[in-house]
Design goal:
mainly beta, 458 residues, 34% strand, two-stranded antiparallel sheet, 44 strands, elongated
């Protein structure tokens, strides 16, 4: 008998021979989410941004569970960056807030160089006294950290302020130790900059108050006949006066360039831009005084003369000499009354001191650096440079012939109105009965002056 299988039997036999297929479930690691059959990090997955199935636009990428533009308006970001707050940031760092001295790197906050992770804090090993140059390296109580090294707080001859240390025998700001600056710059808070009021023009520090090429501002040049002073181009010379190379014409007069616009008081004058007492004066009690003649500050500030003394040449001298009263402008010096300004002043031959200056004693005048009497000097007769001829001599400031016609005068006489006259008596008028000798009118021998007349008392 032939057995014939029914469809139901065949299906039963087939089911018995086919293995059972189990149901598959997606198992994702921490930080990932199962999106269908895919494990996705919804904080950075652009196809599942913030939640499964939320896809970013083609010009966007996912960061911190949000879609951001892949480029900023002003710059193109890198492959692992997006534009957040108008700057390119790593996708893993968007929204990550780091403490001070730390930055986000690959989603983690790390110390910013030159800081190091020392325990739980970021230490700047260039200036951290407890971690100087390396973690745990502490400076001594009289030292501070600067440039990664422990340096003395004070110099041998100078006390430094709290922000500075002694480097190379001078006080230097701690953040500036080891910082080299060029082109006239100086270091301030660790950064090289032009010191005020200088400006950085064409890569160099210039003073806009005095720079002819950058007067008042970079690139503003003065003309060929101008120079810069107080940030303004002023003429090199005044209309009626030629100024020296260090000065310009300001308000009609030559003024030192550095002193234009500088107002001084208390008797001070401007020198190189600073108000100071002109030499030999000193600043005593906020005012300029002359220590050579000031009774309250004689020779030095605070050195006062006694009530019967006055200051001259920086020393106190008696107001009067023994048996002689000196005028208020004089003191007793070497036994005689001498003008205060002339005490200690030594003058040359033919000179006397007046007002502290050596001058020619009257009637002499200065000619070519020498004192001469123009009344009798043949080379300067009547005035400097007016010389008499070889056959003339000077008398009373006029050139006269040495001899008269038919009459030879002696060496001390000249010819006046046809007769020989003693040089010193030329121009001297004597009364009746008197004769001139050596410039003085006197009575004839045997006579005596009685009032205005010469009489023979015999």
């Amino acid at each position: 008998m032939t057995l014939r299988s029914s469809p139901l039997v065949a299906l039963a036999l087939l089911s018995a021979c086919t293995p059972t297929v189990p149901v598959v479930s997606t198992a994702c690691t921490d930080g990932q989410t199962a999106c269908g059959s895919v494990c996705a990090d919804t904080t950075t997955d652009s196809a599942n941004c913030g939640a499964c199935g939320v896809a970013c636009q083609p010009n966007q990428a996912c960061a911190n569970s949000g879609c951001f533009a892949v480029d900023c308006p002003a710059e193109d970001c890198g492959p692992d960056q997006v534009c957040a707050k108008n700057t390119c940031q790593d996708r893993s760092c968007v929204g990550v807030l780091c403490p001070r001295n730390q930055v986000c790197v690959q989603g983690l906050c790390r110390c910013v160089s030159p800081s190091l992770q020392c325990g739980d804090t970021c230490a700047d090993v260039t200036v951290d006294d407890a971690n100087c140059g390396a973690c745990g390296r502490a400076c001594a109580p009289t030292q501070s950290c600067a440039g990664g090294a422990c340096l003395p707080d004070d110099c041998p001859t100078q006390d430094c302020d709290a922000r500075s240390v002694c480097d190379g025998a001078r006080c230097v700001e701690r953040e500036c130790v080891g910082v080299p600056c060029a082109n006239g710059q100086t270091c301030v808070a660790g950064v090289c900059t032009c010191p005020t009021p200088n400006l950085s023009c064409s890569g160099a520090c210039v003073d806009p108050r005095l720079s002819d090429e950058h007067c008042g501002a970079c690139g503003r040049a003065c003309g060929a006949t101008e120079s810069c002073a107080a940030g303004t181009c002023l003429p090199d010379d005044c209309a009626s006066q030629q100024c020296d190379p260090r000065s310009v014409c300001s308000n009609g007069q030559c003024v030192e360039r550095a002193c234009v616009g500088v107002a001084c008081s208390n008797g001070e004058s401007c020198v190189a831009g600073l108000c100071t007492c002109a030499t030999p004066k000193l600043t005593c009690g906020g005012a300029c005084v002359d220590p050579r003649t000031n009774d309250a500050h004689c020779g030095a500030c605070g050195t006062a003369c006694a009530a019967t003394q006055s200051c001259a040449a920086g020393s106190c001298f008696p107001d009067d000499c023994a048996g002689q009263d000196c005028d208020p402008q004089s003191v007793c010096y070497q036994g005689g009354c001498v003008e205060r300004a002339c005490v200690g002043v030594s003058c040359g031959a033919g000179q006397v001191c007046r007002g502290g200056l050596c001058t020619c004693a009257q009637p002499a005048v200065a000619c070519m650096g020498s004192c001469t009497n123009p009344a009798t000097d043949d080379a300067n007769c009547g005035m400097c440079g007016q010389a008499c001829s070889a056959t003339q001599s000077c008398a009373a400031g006029t050139c006269y012939a040495d001899d008269c016609a038919g009459l030879d005068c002696d060496a001390n006489a000249v010819c006046v109105s046809g007769r020989c006259v003693e040089k010193s008596c030329v121009g001297v008028s004597c009364e009746a009965g008197q004769t001139c000798s050596n410039g003085v009118c006197s009575c004839a021998p045997g006579q005596s002056r009685c009032g205005t007349s010469c009489v023979d008392t015999q």
